[in-house]
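Proteins fold reproducibly. Take a sample protein:
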Amino acid sequence: MVARRFAVSHENSTFDVDYDTDDGLEVFKFQLFSLTSVPPDEQKIVCGDDNKIVSDDSDLIWISDKLRLMSINDQDTDEGKSSSGNSDVNEELIMSNDEIMSDEELIMSDEELARMLQAEEEALLLQQYVAQQDNGQMEQKIRPYVDQVLMYEDPTYQEAARKTVPIAELEERALVALAKKEGNFEPTKVERDHTFLLELLFWFKQSFRWVNAPPCDGCGNETINQGTGVALPEEIRWGGSRVELYRCNFCSRITRFPRYNNPMKLLETRKGRCGEWANCFTLYCRAFGYESRLILDLTDHVWTECFSDHFGRWMHLDPCEAIYDNPLLYEKGWKKKLNYVIAIAKDGVYDVTKRYTRKWHEVLARRTITTESKLSSFLENLTKQCRRDLRPELIAMLEERDRNEIEALERNLRSKDDGAVSLPGRLSGDKQWRISRSEYGGGEDITLSCSSCPVRMCVDEHVTNIYNAMGVVLSQFVDTSLSVDGVIDVLKAFKRILMDLKKSPFRSRRISIKCLGNPQPSVYQLVPAFDELLHALHLKRELEESGEMAVQLAADPVRTALALPVAVDAVDDVVQSLDKCASISKDSLFLPLVRLNRIHSGSVLASGEELPFGIATSAFDGTRLSKWEEPNGAKGGWIAYKLKEGQVCELEAYELMSANDVPERDPMDWILEGSSDEGSSWYVLDEQTSQKFEDRFQRKSYKIESCSRQSNAFRFRFLAVRDAGSTSRLQIGGIDLYARKM
């Protein structure tokens, strides 16, 4: 550890920042963000003595104590104008945040680029000699797909596809995702369409089945491949001209596995390998109006691209892996040796290989089917054939978009990988099969994750409101004659009401509660006690003409959809706590039974996170459905929480909840720290060792025993997980921070 104090100048101010070098550069950037409001991903930190860019952790050990902070987005700040005039600094100011490099790195980059260009020239020269004669091989590979994608335009196929999708459910998920992750409760149509597409991808992953070897048609036991058979007329009708045969290991029965190419048939069978998956998913994309392309990788994989109006470009989607917008997945994650990646759509055929590689000079050496010029000419002719019946103005628009795409592919080809993002090996298919295809990558422990997280905002005020409302409900039960068992029965009945509301259409949620005529207090009679909770859920109760009581939407359906899962879990937590109580009284209305004054709406930064579902804010969303997962946190990871601007509080207690699975990843040792200067310096509030969560979704409460201080930021430093020998990961189902009531 090296403790240092830096004097950081920004605009017209200078800040003294205490720093522990063990924390790393990311924590230092978070401290500066707390002081200057310049987000970490927009910061450029320059040494005041020699204008050296601070680019990694080691720089903070040796550099001068005087630093200057500049925002990448503010290229014409007073600091920039009044700097030493060094041309290198001025040039670096206009570089993108992803490509800030020192002079030495720039020189190395130039040398590397020269080597790559030379390798490309050599590969092109060699291609003239080794490329096969034009025997139609490329056309044989591509032409069938040109006809296949036209099936996606059949209105009958599209209607059949839409009928199999729970559209309202996916719309709800999309709107909740926008609200939860971005605080966006009024998204534009473009934002809604983009997020719906992602939900469609995740749903498809769960609804379609991967086939290694099909189970026996007779007894359901495992089978083994016996080669191929002759296709039957009915199989040929649906494009199943290739049929694999499998013998049952138990009863010796032969099971047929036709490899259907017709997406209408795949809507029925809902199984296959990557060809069937991409074929069917691309039909779904077209059925919902997305401009889509089937992507053919000649090293034997298939996926989808959709044009994203949200991004203004084509977006990669792999339905087998449920991964999107990560085109380097195959080269970097799977370790594939790509050669040709061809996009096939109803209005054109395109060579998009350059989107999927940063090693073009290596790929070029493997492109030996035909020469680049012949390939380009062939694809241009195919595209003209696809567009021959289109209106001139539409052709002009498509040609303009083609030019933009080509420019973007060339520009991005020279960009560097995002080293902070880890891409997994192939996850779909049998392990040995993946290894045999050299697609296993770094193994199953490598997942889509990020070691350089952005600052994320918590959209969780509804969680605090629900916890407070549950306290009101319990305080009212204290004044009744109900026993603990009676209160539990009422809470379970109310949970059933919440579950029925969750199942009802999210835009028109409404259920009726019947009076059971029971002389004992029933949930019907006690519903008024839940008014505060209903209000927190944006629901209301009304008396119907029949005399029955109805619970229905009171406001924005998205806010209700966001809050309902939290309320269901909160009721479960209270029931579990009551099970341990002999009686309920005012003396029992404290943690863990009652959770008041929960801190909310802050910002979060973490040492790493799993994408897209294990992000840092998942620890604060109040549900069991999600978790924060740190892929490399088993031997150390951290998560920091900063209060809303201008807020301070004294921390009274906190709770941690175990996640849904893998107890080995549970935190065991940790230190909780506070800060009164928004993260510039830290002090210890609590320290725990050898903690063990016995159950999944188990909550553990901890009181701050030391003399707490007014703080505006908190940080958990997790030092070890339950079994670091069996996992590299840290995961937490939930974190709740409780302020002392003033």
